[in-house]
């Protein structure tokens, strides 16, 4: 049997399969709002479905696809649903979906520039474009596409270490005579903790700085901690600020922190995984003032910019830094472009063989332009403002204050009843009509709703508030 032919299928079979699949996917995409937002987590049923086939006999294509589509329809939290008010998981935008399909078909190898020169230059162009928006000087901008904010933050910690301790690349932490410490907000994303752990610094090297009532890092506390650490002989090397914390959407005082970083010679990284999207909107970008003074930035294209998963960007204004951090030469890697002034992506990134992540952003820009992105960011912000307004009108108490479309709230009558919020949240999720989450603020659980889907409108916001009001009434009656 010729395996190549089997795996390719015939041209006729492919045509049928494509047509069938596109019709079904289009049905889902067009009618996502008819889905129940969250499934019941019936572990036995799910496993049974997954293990239904033992691969001894191949299924016909349609049957195989039906099986997968059924599993995903029934047992997925539909983050693409306009009533999913959850974590920063967007609905995939259409250009991004097309890009993922194209990438899978061409499968360009992003390790060596000479194997995928178009793809490599597309990514560089996107990184430069967004870097300029953030206010970096064009000729210094460098960066890499990453699988997510976690990888981008890890990349940042590695660049900072290599920048501050040039011997780190060869000798590792063992080569250092000092004890490096780094700083972040107490509300930093947990990927920052993990980065400290995996680079070998350990959790103890990380100094979470207290935040104020609105979740912003307090520069005074930072300075005090820096002085203490210096006095104790530690070597501060990095500061990580939040531009949109995951819980409450808090933006740290970016300008002030830039000053502190400068004063103490720290690599200044801004984790703008979600909030960084504000930069494309002329009225909203003011909230990111100070980000231009950073040394590097994390921005997830798969959050507010709504690319399908595994699309993130690390940007820096130190053009030698990624190279210094990741450079390695391997004899077997293609060398056709070694005379050209180009960079092999594998010398620049944690990844080696890598998919063409950047196409999802490039195609989106080609198809809707910066204007289109700005309009989307503006409209999602407005929907967020509407949600805040409606909650206030119905006597909900807001517990955070941010320019981002994230609302943390409760009912003032239940601030000492720790059951109220979990009970309400569970009922919302169980209803299948919407999805919200819980975030703990000052040791008390709060309801958290975030506009994370550009198709969420006034209608979904109104429905959510009605549902919450109804459930609150029910809870009151006991
Ligand atoms: C989501 C998030 C991350 C992690 O990004 P992933 O894309 O999930 O890896 C890091 N920082 C912040 C502020 C985030 O919101």
Features:
single chain; 478 residues; alpha/beta; 7-stranded mixed sheet; binds pyridoxal-5'-phosphate
Secondary structure: elements and pairs:
Blueprint: H1 3-8, H2 11-30, H3 43-50, H4 61-74, H5 94-106, H6 117-133, E1 142-146, H7 149-164, H8 168-171, E2 179-185, H9 190-198, E3 206-209, H10 219-231, E4 234-242, H11 254-264, E5 267-271, E6 296-300, E7 312-316, H12 321-326, H13 359-393, E8 397-398, E9 406-410, H14 420-431, E10 437-441, E11 444-450, H15 458-477
Parallel strand pairs: 2-3, 2-4, 4-5, 5-6
Antiparallel strand pairs: 1-7, 6-7, 8-9, 9-11, 10-11
The protein binds pyridoxal-5'-phosphate.
Descriptive notes:
- Belongs to the group II decarboxylase family.
- GO terms for molecular function: carboxy-lyase activity; pyridoxal phosphate binding; transaminase activity.
- This is Aminotransferase class V-fold PLP-dependent enzyme.
- With 478 residues, the protein is of the alpha/beta class.
- Helices cover 43% and strands 12% of the residues.
- The protein contains 15 helices and 11 strands.
- α14 (420-431) crosses α15 (458-477).
- The termini are far apart.
- The model has no long low-confidence stretch (mean pLDDT 95).
- The protein binds pyridoxal-5'-phosphate.
- Pyridoxal-5'-phosphate binds at residues 88, 148-150, 153, 189, 191, 246, 271, 273-274, 300, 312.
- The site of pyridoxal-5'-phosphate has 13 residues, from α7.
């Amino acid at each position: 049997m010729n395996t190549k032919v089997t795996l390719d299928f015939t041209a006729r079979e492919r045509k049928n399969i494509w047509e069938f699949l596109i019709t079904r996917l289009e049905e889902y995409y067009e009618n996502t709002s008819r889905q129940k937002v969250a499934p019941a987590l019936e572990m036995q049923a799910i496993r049974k479905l997954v293990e239904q086939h033992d691969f001894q006999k191949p299924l016909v294509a349609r049957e195989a696809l039906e099986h997968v589509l059924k599993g995903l329809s029934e047992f997925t939290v539909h983050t693409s649903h306009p009533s999913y008010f959850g974590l920063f998981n967007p609905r995939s935008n259409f250009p991004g979906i097309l890009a993922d399909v194209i990438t899978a078909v061409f499968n360009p190898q992003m390790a060596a520039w000479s194997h995928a020169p178009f793809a490599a230059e597309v990514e560089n162009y996107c990184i430069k474009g967004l870097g300029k928006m953030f206010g970096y000087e064009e000729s210094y901008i460098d960066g890499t596409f990453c699988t997510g904010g976690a990888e981008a933050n890890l990349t940042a910690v590695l660049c900072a270490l290599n920048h501050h301790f040039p011997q780190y690349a060869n000798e590792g932490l063992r080569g250092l005579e000092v004890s490096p410490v780094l700083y972040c907000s107490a509300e930093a994303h947990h990927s920052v903790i993990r980065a400290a752990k995996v680079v070998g610094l350990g959790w103890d090297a990380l100094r979470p700085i207290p935040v104020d009532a609105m979740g912003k890092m307090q520069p005074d506390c930072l300075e005090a901690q820096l002085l203490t650490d210096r006095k104790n002989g530690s070597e501060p090397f990095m500061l990580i600020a939040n531009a949109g914390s995951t819980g409450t959407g808090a933006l740290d005082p970016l300008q002030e922190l830039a000053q502190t970083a400068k004063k103490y010679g720290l690599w200044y990284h801004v984790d703008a995984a979600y909030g960084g999207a504000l930069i494309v909107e002329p009225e909203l970008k003011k909230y990111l003032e100070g980000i231009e003074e950073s040394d590097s930035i994390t921005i997830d294209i798969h959050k507010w910019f709504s690319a399908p998963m595994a699309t993130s960007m690390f940007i820096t204004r130190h053009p030698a830094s990624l190279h210094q951090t990741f450079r390695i030469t391997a004899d077997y890697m293609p060398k056709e472009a070694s005379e050209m002034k180009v960079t092999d992506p594998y010398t620049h990134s944690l990844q080696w063989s890598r998919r063409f992540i950047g196409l999802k952003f490039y195609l989106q820009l080609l198809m809707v332009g910066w204007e289109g992105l700005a309009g989307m960011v503006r409209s999602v912000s407005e929907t967020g403002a509407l949600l805040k307004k409606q909650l206030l009108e119905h006597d909900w108490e807001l517990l955070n204050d941010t320019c981002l479309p994230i609302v943390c709230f409760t009912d003032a009558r239940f601030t000492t009843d720790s059951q109220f919020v979990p009970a309400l949240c569970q009922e919302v999720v169980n209803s299948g009509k919407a999805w919200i989450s819980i975030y703990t603020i000052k040791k008390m659980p709060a309801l958290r709703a975030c506009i994370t889907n550009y198709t969420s409108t006034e209608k979904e916001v109104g429905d959510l508030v009605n549902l919450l009001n109804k459930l609150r009434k029910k809870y009151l009656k006991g």
